[in-house]
Amino acid sequence: MSFHHIVLLSFKEDTTDEQKKTFFSTLDALKDVPNVISVKHGKNVTDRAKGFEYGLVVVLKDRQAELDYQKHDLHIKVLDALKPIKKDVLAMDFDA
């Protein structure tokens, strides 16, 4: 069994492509957090996303790994990079 952390994002209207690109590059570093199995992210391609533009899926070893991930410096760096460009965020976590 593994633990899945899913995040949907939308960006402020004045967010530039360069700002998004810089933010997306921070996501790739999440693979270096201990007990992260995989990190996938990409732009929405459906009209059913209710305004969310981008998705992130992080698969972790277990729930404790996700709790540790939330406090890890690389995750905090992602949150800090997102703050000035974030319009909305939706997160969901589950065991699978």
Overall radius of gyration: 13 Å
The proportion of strand residues reads 35-45%
The shape, in one word, is globular
- Number of DSSP strand runs: 4
Q: Could you tell me how far the N terminus lies from the C terminus, measured between alpha carbons in angstroms?
A: 6 Å
Count of runs of 4 or more consecutive helical residues: 3
Major sheet: 4 strands, antiparallel
Summarize model confidence as the mean pLDDT.
97
Give helix % range: 25-40%
Contiguous low-pLDDT stretches (5 residues minimum) are none
Q: H/E order of the elements? A: EHEEHHE
Structural class label: alpha+beta
Structure commentary:
With 96 residues, the protein is of the alpha+beta class. The protein is built from 3 helices and 4 strands; from the N terminus they run E-H-E-E-H-H-E. It has a 4-stranded antiparallel β-sheet. Helix 1 (17-28) runs antiparallel to helix 3 (73-82). The N and C termini lie close together (6 Å).
Secondary-structure blueprint:
Elements: E1 3-11, H1 17-28, E2 36-43, E3 54-60, H2 63-71, H3 73-82, E4 86-95
Antiparallel strand pairs: 1-3, 1-4, 2-3
Helix pairs in contact: 1-3
Structure, briefly:
By secondary structure, the chain is of the alpha+beta class. It has three helices and four strands; from the N terminus they run βαββααβ.
Identify the notable features of this structure and list them briefly.
96 residues; four-stranded antiparallel β-sheet; 4 strands; 35% strand
